[in-house]
Description:
The complex is a heterodimer. Chain A is an alpha+beta fold. Chain A has 7 helices and 17 strands. In chain A, the strands form 2 sheets. Chain A has a 15-stranded mixed beta sheet that branches. In chain A, helix 1 packs across helix 3 (about 80-95) and helix 5 packs across helix 6 (about 250-265). In chain B, strand 3 (about 40) and strand 4 form a beta hairpin. The longest helix of chain B is centred in the last third of the chain and has 12 residues, at about 225-235. Chain B is elongated. The model of chain B has no long low-confidence stretch (mean pLDDT about 95). Chains A and B meet through strand 8 and strand 10 of A and helix 4 of B.
Amino acid sequence: MRVNGVEIEDTFAEAFKMWGTRLIITARNAKWAMKAATKMTGFATSVIGCKCEAGIEGEIAETPDGRPGLSVLLFTPSKKDLAKRLVERVGQCVMTCPTTACFNGLVSPEQVAVGGQLRYFGDGFQISKLWDGRRFWRIPVMEGEFLVEERFGIQSSVGGGNFLILGEDADATLEAAERAVEVMEQVPGIILPFPGGVVRSGSKTSSKYKFLHASTNDAFCPTLRGLVETELAPEVNCVLEIVIDGLDVAAVEEATRVGIRAASIPGIRRISAGNYGGTLGQYQIHLHRVLEG
Amino acid sequence: MEKITLRLKEPVTVPLEAEVISPDTFQGKTRAEIEGLPVYCGNEEGRLGDFFAVQGAGGREMVLEGDLSRVKQIGAGMTQGRISIYGDAGMHLGATMRGGEIIVHGNASDWVGAEMAGGMICIQGNAGHGLGGAYRGSVRGMNRGLIMVGGDAGNEVGNAMRRGVIVVQGNTGDFTGAFMIAGTIIALGRLGDRAGAGMKRGTIVAFHRLQLLPTFRYDCTYKPTFLRLLLIGLRARGVDIGDAYLEGQYLRYSGDLTTLGKGEILIWEGA
Lengths: 293, 271
């Protein structure tokens, strides 16, 4: 298959079951909402090293308190981890940020306590408010009050959707990746957890070193073309990967579809995807099927 | 949804105890069965059909018409459905209700929503005393739910309430929020004397200056975020909330210090 003359490899991205949630962070203005969301989603590129994957989903037009706000998605391998990471990150990155409030943004029968844990910071002066069947906690802080919802919805989600952009040079490949990210970020229900949505250091699940479980994806490293069994055609000199986490597989597939189309520009030779032969992940996102859909 | 209409045949001069007027009681009953439901007019037992012309059969949607100001306990204890009243309603409307909606296109008497535990009551006119409050001798009043009054309310609004929200768009009488345990009272009109007397926790929001009890202590002037959440929600339900209330600052007073002192009275700074 070709899109705009770019070869789309007949392969699939192998994605994994994760647990995800959506938070809504509001603040007095967009600047402070963004500051809290940026902190909250910092150091959250991969569960391998960061314990969670998180990103800003987008701006929210109508927030619960009517102030400017952003939605943030956060993913972990297990429910238990998700509860822990939420409490840590909302407590350390949102509660600490001036003027913010934090609300559940995912309606789901499965929920974890967030405000219900953070309330203890109020040292007995916290105030509970029940409204519309939802409980909120008002935690007194030096600036005034931090408002946080007691419970946040969680759901089974998809992590590790991906595709690889194989380009003739670094400039064209980065341009393709940027174009892909720009359109993918418009898809609701997904985040691209890596810097700018792009990964340059894709990994394989093995290493010559016993203490490492993952190491550089040498088959896609242009500098190792002469040393290893390469996946790169002679004219490919740069590879970038885009990793996608989503609240459901449909969102990940949609992001993949629009992303590949946007990345198919002159200077790109092939678009592929990372997988482990289908042996590890619960989801297979076939590039051809997604593009034909 | 099946709809049933009850029209008062002629005004009653003595109170009519009619707690059977509830979607829970009516559901699944035929018109004849509904007409045969027992009511007490004073101390005399009668049938609902003696006083009301019934149209339709049992269902979750009920419409009541006429001057029901002496018809007591309408919707008391109900858990579901909707009652729309075109006229005035008598005492104990929706008392101890746990779910459903009551909408009164007129005034309501005392003890509206007393000790209710869920659901919503909307009075477009005025309400009497004891709105959402605790009955004499009870430990707590309203415990969840929402009461909205378009006009004025009497004394002891939200007396000993434990949870829930009461909104009064007109003026309220004395002892509003007295002995509150928790919950929220929003008084868009003027508050009477001794608001929050004996309150342990809970919130009273005032939009006019008021004479506070000396056992309330000033904390700060700020913009409580939770209040925006609440006011926006009320605006969506048709309560007239101006932008100035959303954006404004509020003076926070803690009290009542004769008790736990973890209650608060928020006074809009623009008052």
